[in-house]
Amino acid sequence: MERRRFLRAALSGGALLAVGGSYALPRLLAAGAQGGLPALVHTRPGDVLLECFADDGRDLGPCRVQRLVLSDAQWRARLPPLAFEVMRRDGTERAFSGPHERPAQAGIFRCIACATALYDAATEFDSGTGWPSFWQPIAKRNVIESRDDSLGMERIAIDCAGCNSHLGHVFDDGPPPTGLRYCMNSVALRFAAAAGGGPQARNAGAGRA
């Protein structure tokens, strides 16, 4: 696990230093310590308890699924080149290089690698950074938070709980009601529009545990 972490950090050294925002996150780190925030992401095969959602954002309840674990060659075959560098090498896409505007219709954002539900489109906001930004995940158990001390900074990295792929980082400069900004790489997300394509709700409900 240590070797994989080192290789991912080394290969991502040419990426942008951060996905915007502040780097001193005492409130987030304190909360993570209280919640048992892991120092490293676990990548062993096995099942994982997720919260499942329909594309319209309807909560289908807890579901236990097999964590997606692939070889490097299999990941390269499964993901586009930039998505591979971001999700499996902890890279960062260039700002404003991908879709980042809040969609005009209701729906959710899923992991492009394993289809785990990650964010309700109603929680996206314009952060001005050029990356999709959300004030909360659709369910806390669907993402993994871990300390990221790479590149001489102290940050909280966000990975997909369904496949342990890197998504982005979370910062403490977001809007109400959470004050958080989950700053994601667009190449890691796939938008699934709700059936009917109606307009979004003005606000999403509280995040699920």
Would you give an account of this structure?
The protein is of the alpha+beta class. The protein has one domain: Peptide methionine sulfoxide reductase (Metal Binding Protein, Guanine Nucleotide Exchange Factor, Chain A). The chain contains four helices and eleven strands; from the N terminus they run ααββααβββββββββ. The chain has helices at 2-11, 26-34, 72-78, 81-89; strands spanning 47-53, 59-66, 107-111, 117-120, 124-125, 133-134, 143-148, 155-160, 166-171, 181-184, 189-193. The protein has a six-stranded antiparallel beta sheet. It has a three-stranded antiparallel beta sheet with strand order 4-3-11, with no helix packed on it. Strands 1-2 form a two-stranded antiparallel ribbon. A hairpin with a 5-residue loop joins strand 1 and strand 2 (59-66). The relative contact order is 0.23. The model is unreliable at 1-42 and 202-206 (pLDDT under 50). Its cofactor is Zn(2+). It is an enzyme of class 1 (oxidoreductase). Residues 72-194 form the MsrB domain.
